[in-house]
Amino acid sequence: MKRMGIVVALILLIVFPSIDAYCASPAEREALIALYESTNGPHWDQKTGWLGGEGTECSWYGVACENSQVTGISLSENQLTGSIPPEIGNLINLSGLYLYNNQLTGSIPPEIGNLTNILYLYLENNQLTGSIPPELVSLTNLRNLNLSSNQLIGSIPPELGSLMNLQYLDLSSNQLTGRISSTFSGLSFLETFRTL
Hints:
Layout lengths: L1 H14 L10 H13 L24 E4 L2 E6 L6 E2 L13 E3 L4 E2 L15 E3 L21 E3 L6 E2 L13 E3 L4 E2 L15 E3 L2
Parallel strand pairs: 2-4, 3-5, 4-6, 6-7, 7-9, 8-10, 9-11
Antiparallel strand pairs: 1-2
């Protein structure tokens, strides 16, 4: 009977894995809550599940998880206002961050350079100000970067020319100045590059 009980317990663990397997880490939960609070979450168009109890993070609107890690945030066209919090850098397993078509203000936090697994970063059509953070050079897996239609100033960091996996880069409709560095000529996978 004892052996049967162990077998049943093993089957239950396989069929119904622990709920913890679907939880975000404490650092990821903190980052999600910071994003909600910093961008006026109570006034988002869609906010189902947000600020629910621990272990519910992967069911929050716009949050995607894989293997107990937050891998995607999609909150485009959702009436986000305010700024992107520095805690966004805690979401180190993100492969996609989609915050376009909102009313975000303030600068792009340098901590976004911590998202070294990110493939797709879309922040276009907001009201972001300041310069393009050179910390983006750390995003070596990045394929698509869209910062267009904001109020970014300064020059295009030549360091972006070392992001060898870039396929799409749109920096248009900002207030960027200066020349484009020759470093961009080495981006062999780049198919689209807009700056005007």
